[in-house]
């Protein structure tokens, strides 16, 4: 059979803050893609931190199983690049190309992408990702192909000079409606519009090349927005992501899917779609039975984790259809501010005492009655059965995936570096990992 090309588009720190998810953010190209394809309303990443999230999606397993425990730009990398989906696809006749960010290897520029296994590196400059993708699509590339287009947007720093009026902007859900928050969100919106325009140029080139009907388009992001309580947080504000897919017969017609989906389900879905053998390391589940209407859901739980971001902050979470349970593995009495990107909102929150609020060792939320995850139910006797169930689910998963936290901690690899958890900003001086030592 003729297998579809795959165009994988990913952005930084976008969460679900685009117009297809109901937000007042003008992203017409992503809106059109959703209305023509399939929109997953309850998609989640496996880690609310950049490189581990991408590693999970591209290897189909938890970040700790893939060995991606921290950020590539801080010296972390996949344990085995052969587990990247492009190698499975190469065995099925695909060629692979990269335009922009890959974020899985700390090696420098083109060398990094070739070490991952890409056949072609169109550009590793994020500012040129869309133009390189457009040129590739117009060049009549050999089919089938996998093309990664990795955008820097909507990562901070946001553009400070823009046309978005903060007077008519609402900050994201977990944050107060203040002038600082509105200005910060207005700047995010300006960058989201830049992202959407670049995606639009890429999709137009796909159509003009005559490849649209022969291509499965996947758009997603790594995790939530770079605001306090979002990115690097295991609440839905951190792990809730956009996921829009178009093409390949099933991902068409403006479908809206409400079932829970994890990023790790994308790799097995592609294997199922292409009718190729799924590698034995995959931990996700194919979405095709859901798309075919054979089942109403493909999972009743999903998991997410943080080990390192800018700093070490070990924590794990399990989410069921209704409940969220989060467990920390440190003894901190204050938040890890170096894992919160700097900006107007962070400054305002820190000035109001955010940095003195002790993080809870355990958190349980009823996401149906408390969708913003503010009311921690640990200690509420009425929820004791739910708490016991969620604790047990997390424990089973950690054992099944041989989570290194079961051994007492997650040492950083030699050559990596990170901030102190006590630092106030990720921009402060870093410290190198010592062999066999913990941060």
Describe this structure in words.
It is a single chain. The protein is an alpha/beta fold and 439 residues long. The protein has helices at 28-36, 50-59, 63-66, 85-91, 109-116, 129-138, 179-208, 236-239, 266-274, 288-291, 344-351, 384-400, and strands spanning 5-11, 38-40, 43-44, 95-100, 120-123, 145-150, 215-221, 240-241, 243-246, 255-257, 261-262, 301-308, 312-320, 323-328, 362-366, 417-418, 431-432. It starts with a strand and ends in a 7-residue tail after the last strand.
Short description:
This protein is of the alpha/beta class and 439 residues long.
State the major sheet.
Answer: 8 strands, mixed
Instruction: Using the CA coordinates, give the radius of gyration.
Output: 21 Å
Helices and strands, in order, run as EHEEHHHEHEHEHEHEEEEHHEEEHEHEE
Tell me, rounded to a whole number, the average pLDDT. Answer: 95
- Please give the order of strands in the largest beta sheet: 5-4-6-1-7-9-2-10
In the predicted model, the low-confidence regions spanning at least 5 consecutive residues are none
Which percent bin holds the helix content? 25-40%
Q: Tell me the span between the first and last alpha carbons.
A: 52 Å
Q: What portion of the residues fall into strands of 2 or more residues?
A: 15-25%
């Amino acid at each position: 059979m003729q297998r579809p090309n795959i165009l994988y588009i990913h952005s930084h720190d976008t969460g679900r803050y685009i117009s297809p998810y109901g937000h007042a953010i003008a992203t017409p190209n992503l809106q059109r893609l959703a209305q023509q394809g399939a929109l997953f309303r309850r998609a989640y990443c496996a880690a609310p931190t950049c490189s581990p999230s991408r590693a999970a999606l591209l290897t189909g397993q938890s970040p700790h199983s893939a060995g991606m425990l921290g950020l590539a730009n801080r010296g972390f990398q996949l344990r085995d690049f052969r587990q990247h989906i492009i190698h499975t696809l190469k065995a099925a006749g695909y060629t692979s190309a990269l335009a922009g960010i890959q974020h899985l290897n700390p090696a420098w520029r083109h060398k990094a992408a070739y070490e991952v296994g890409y056949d072609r590196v169109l550009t590793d400059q994020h500012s040129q990702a869309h133009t390189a993708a457009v040129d590739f699509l117009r060049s009549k590339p050999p089919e089938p192909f996998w093309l990664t287009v990795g955008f820097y947007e909507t990562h901070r720093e946001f553009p400070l000079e823009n046309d978005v009026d903060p007077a008519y902007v609402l900050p994201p859900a977990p944050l107060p409606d203040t002038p600082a928050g509105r200005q910060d969100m207005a700047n995010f919106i300006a960058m989201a519009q830049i992202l959407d325009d670049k995606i639009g140029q890429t999709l137009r080139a796909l159509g003009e090349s005559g490849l649209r009907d022969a291509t499965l388009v996947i758009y997603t992001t790594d995790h939530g927005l770079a605001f306090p309580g979002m990115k690097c947080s295991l609440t839905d504000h951190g792990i809730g992501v956009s996921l829009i897919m178009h093409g390949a017969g099933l991902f068409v017609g403006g479908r809206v899917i409400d079932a829970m989906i994890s990023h790790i389900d994308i790799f097995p879905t592609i294997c199922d779609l292409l009718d190729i053998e799924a590698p034995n390391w995959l931990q996700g589940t194919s979405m095709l039975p859901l798309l075919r209407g054979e089942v109403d859901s493909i999972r009743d739980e999903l998991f997410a984790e943080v080990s390192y971001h800018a700093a070490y902050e070990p924590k794990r979470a399990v989410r069921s259809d209704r409940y969220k349970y989060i467990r920390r593995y440190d003894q901190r009495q204050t938040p890890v501010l170096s894992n919160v990107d700097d900006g107007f909102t962070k400054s305002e929150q820190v000035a109001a005492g955010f940095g003195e609020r002790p993080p809870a060792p355990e958190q349980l939320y009823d996401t149906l009655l408390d969708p913003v995850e503010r009311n921690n139910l640990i200690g509420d006797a009425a929820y004791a059965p739910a708490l016991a169930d969620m604790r047990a689910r997390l424990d089973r998963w950690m054992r099944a995936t041989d989570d290194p936290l079961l051994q007492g901690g997650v040492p950083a690899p030699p050559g990596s570096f990170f901030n102190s958890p006590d630092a106030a900003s990720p921009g402060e001086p870093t410290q190198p990992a010592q062999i066999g030592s913990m941060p």
